[in-house]
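Exercise 7. Predict the structure of Tetratricopeptide repeat protein from Hyalangium minutum.
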Amino acid sequence: MSSPELLERAMEGFRLYEEGDYPEARLIFEELAQQDPLEAYYRTALGAIYLAEDELDAALEAFDEALKLNPKDSAALVNRGEVHLRLGNIMEAAQDFARAVDLDPENKDPLTMRARLLAAAAIETIEAAQRSAPAELKK
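Solution. The predicted structure, encoded as tokens:
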């Protein structure tokens, strides 16, 4: 496929994702990921689909792959952070959110606001766990 055809397919896949047709969107992004293995966006999109379908391990793997290809992919960072949060990996989640916020110091990307909110929730979870820990563990 040519670049314009890949873009057209990606736009179709995104539209299907937005409409909640995750199985069809998944097929498109799996095909695109095979066609262009160096494009991080396709893996980020797959991760978002897996996340929406509650396939957290598959989502984590897709976001990891996306971030290997593009370490500055804020969508992959925020979404991977959410996966970590849902898996109970609070520190990993907080790190991903912090990296996403660092990538957008002027807070122009809507994902950054989401990252800030989720980071605050992660920190609150850590602080609540520390407050409720037995005194022996706090030493």
